[in-house]
Amino acid sequence: MPKKTLKKLMPRQDQVLENKSMRLLSRWLHKADVWHFNRRYVSRAALIGLFCAFIPLPMQMVIAGIACIFVRANLPLSIVFVWITNPLTIAPIFYACYRLGAFILDIQAVDYSSQINWEWFQAQFHQIVEPLFLGSFIVGTFASALGYTVIDLLWRRHTVKRWHNRKKRSAKTSK
User: DUF2062 domain location, by residue (predicted)?
Assistant: First the structure.
């Protein structure tokens, strides 16, 4: 696992503490647990961040932050994963989640007009909410399980590789 690369991507502690939405958690953000960077904490951060990224509600970072405090996961990396659904990607991701939910529930998907606005959304809300949440739950569960597994396996593989390289170097120097 390229630990240095991941650390470069993560927001610093002062950046997280300055974020307005994270002020609710500022009392717990000073604990060292949420800043640890090891295989378990990083894998848990991927699990939490990816799951929260697919929650179709506002304040995904706060939800991820609370989960990181209770589960003892790396908070900054979890926030990075939450930002998979950002202003550029949120519409296509949640539309795909909605379509998946509608398919699973065997519901005819609501046609959307090219002019989606707040009034349209309020009128269609009762038809959209159930498939959206089901699809988001399924995609979030799959993405978080996949992210957890991939990071855990890559980290283990990297650790074993480093251990073997160290063993080879020590064998060469002892000859």
Answer: 23-164
